[in-house]
């Protein structure tokens, strides 16, 4: 039987540089012979498609419904018989995921009771905890500058005021979960290369012990 792959999650407020950094980490791991898959939440599956329409403002939903849809999308992402994360891990692939339940703890907790959000995600946490959650930290001001400079469309959480609340909610969740979660805070206000060096070194030494 193959060794189970590692599950590495990137978190951060919108525009923090997650997708840039996860690709660079995957490249570094592949160079070391570690088979790696990149994935993201919300997915582009059935539930994820609805979430993308809610995030863009195309359809409106009560925040409680949005929170529940994120849980449903996450469970499908984990357990899907064709391309679920659990299947990839069992096959020995390392999975790097853009966002997981800490995104719900942070974003949905600004609108729905945080206890409820954590409880609704309990099945996900019990099924699969990340080997590490890498939180790429930037200020909401920098986030908005990057989003406005690089995108034509703005999503529902993308204002400086909302991202400030989300960032605070991330740190509150990290503090609350410090005994059961491995979270590494990465200073995201450096050059792409400096951040990648930091993440690569941390991951190889601490997650893969090489
Ligand atoms: P996310 O996936 O977290 O939304 P991205 O990786 O898409 O973030 O980055 C958001 C924008 O910021 C992109 O235009 C990207 O090129 C730019 N960017 C990423 N990392 C940095 C960095 N360290 N410094 C400056 N700009 C960056
Ligand atoms: P994403 O496409 O990663 O946005 P960005 O690249 O700008 O960081 O995520 C889309 C949005 O979905 C983002 O605003 C955060 C939100 N989101 C939640 O509110 N809850 C969740 O559980 C997840 C996974 C994402």
Characterization of the model:
With 210 residues, this protein is α/β, with parallel strands linked by helices. It has a single domain, classed as 3-Layer(aba) Sandwich (Rossmann fold), CATH 3.40.50. It is built from 10 helices and 5 strands; from the N terminus they run E-H-E-H-H-H-E-H-H-H-E-H-H-E-H. A 5-stranded parallel beta sheet has the order 2-3-1-4-5. Helix 1 crosses helix 10 and helix 5 packs across helix 9. The mean pLDDT is 97. The site of thymidine-5'-diphosphate has 14 residues, from helix 5.
SSE layout:
Layout: E1 7-11, H1 18-31, E2 36-40, H2 46-56, H3 63-79, H4 85-90, E3 94-98, H5 101-107, H6 114-120, H7 122-127, E4 132-137, H8 140-150, H9 160-176, E5 183-187, H10 192-207
Parallel strand pairs: 1-3, 1-4, 2-3, 4-5
Helix pairs in contact: 1-10, 2-3, 5-9, 8-9
Bound molecules: adenosine-5'-diphosphate (ADP) and thymidine-5'-diphosphate.
Adenosine-5'-diphosphate binds at residues 12, 14-20, 146, 150, 191-192, 195.
Strand tally is 5
Relevant CATH superfamily: P-loop containing nucleotide triphosphate hydrolases
Low-confidence stretches: none
> Percent of residues in helical segments?
40-55%
Specify the structural class. Answer: alpha/beta
Which CATH architecture is right?
3-Layer(aba) Sandwich
Strand content: 5-15%
Straight-line distance between termini? 21 Å
Rg calc: 16 Å
> What is the makeup of the main sheet?
5 strands, parallel
